[in-house]
Amino acid sequence: MQPYKASNTALSAAILVASLGYFVDIYDLLLFSIVRIPSLKSLGLSGTQLTDTGIMLLNTQMIGMLIGGILWGMLGDRKGRLSVLFGSIFLYSMANIANGLVHSVNAYAFWRFIAGLGLAGELGAGITLVAELMPKEKRGYATTIVASVGVSGAVVAYFIAQIFDWRTSFFIGGGLGLLLLLLRIGVAESGMFSESKEASNRGDFFALFRNKTQFVKYIRCIMIGIPLWFVVGVLITLSPEFGKVLRVQGEVSAGAAVAWCYGGIVIGDIAGGLISQWLKSRIKVVYIFLAMATLGIIAYFTLYDLTLQHFYWLCGGIGLTVGYWVIFMTIATEQFGTNIRATVTTTVPNFVRGAVVPLTLLFQLLKGVYGGNIIHSGITVAIISLAVAFYALSRMKETFSKDLDYVEEF
């Protein structure tokens, strides 16, 4: 294949739309966690129903993301990155608006599932498009912009939820997504995709499982992201419960903890992307972040009697230590050829997000084993998550200078 060079206008348009699309994606993904209690209370639920129904709705959303990740990924390699980018934005925007109109738990669950389907596609398509349009020496800068702008959507979701009621917060998210579709003019399809239309196994998700080498590489991509979602899905989501055991001086708000954590992740993503460009290595940067995450998790479990503000600072700090999402996504994108790249880049982050389900189930199981001690349960799950990530990273090849203009042979 001949090297494809996109114009500066095409590059700027792609980065802008991918960044803002991910912003709205994260806004919606975290908004439910933030408004879970007030939204369920308004539907007439109380007591343990708030927790049990909330977990059910979250798992329903995650199942939608797992299914959507596969469907959107295959579509992205068969029909193009742009069709997935804009199709997913439209779907989760409409689901957002519908979430603001629900009056029953069943309707809430249905639209969280649809939202999950939509949320599964945008990030993978956006990262794949940007990575294929950018020169290999500058890929890290572009993906850093996409991720850092995107994860800041969690912080905005928190402040929006403080100002407006939960229904209006969902309407705002949906409206932002629909407005974003107006920016689609000027965004060009990836030249690499256009040139690979005759390649075999385009978007064949199951081809990854028929080839041992590709399958192992694919699983390793997923494994290195597990600690990030352990922190978000367990330590931060359950921060009110942990706060009580750690004797935090005040009532911990899960929404505030999420905002602080994602604020740290934004800083980590920016720093990680820049450091990877400086070191000319993705692998070394992930090692640095995993080492910091180990220290951050130790601090989380051992610092007792913190003031509420200091605990939120800790949430921000631990968010920074797992702020390697942009590097993790870029590694996954760079590991595979053009004919399967969107499938991988779309499914990998959704399987990592979906790992919250087995992580929380393991946490609950161990809580019973440890007689209800959530600290011991959390430490055990943390050790497993970090060990898995370190092992996978030790077996991965460096991809910083890799040319992406090739197809995968199965």
| Name of the level-1 CATH class | Mainly Alpha
Largest sheet: none
Count, helices = 18
| Helix residue percentage | over 70%
Structural classification: mainly alpha
CATH fold call = Growth Hormone, Chain: A
User: Which blocks of ≥5 consecutive residues have pLDDT under 50?
Assistant: none
CATH architectural designation: Up-down Bundle
How do the SSEs run, as a string of H and E?
A: HHHHHHHHHHHHHHHHHH
Q: How many beta-strand runs?
A: 0
Distance between the first and last residues' Cα: 19 Å
Protein name: MFS family permease
Pfam family, one: MFS_1
Membrane topology: Multi-pass membrane protein
Keywords: Membrane, Transmembrane, Transmembrane helix
Describe it for me?
The chain is built from 18 helices and no strands. The chain has one domain: MFS general substrate transporter like domains (Growth Hormone, Chain: A), CATH 1.20.1250.20. Helix 1 packs antiparallel against helix 12, helix 9 (212-223) packs across helix 16 and helix 15 runs antiparallel to helix 16. The two termini are 19 Å apart. The protein has helices spanning 8-42, 48-78, 81-99, 105-133, 139-163, 166-180, 191-195, 207-210, 212-223, 226-236, 239-245, 254-279, 283-302, 308-321, 325-334, 338-354, 356-369, 374-394. It has 410 residues and is mainly alpha-helical. Helices cover 77% and strands 0% of the residues.
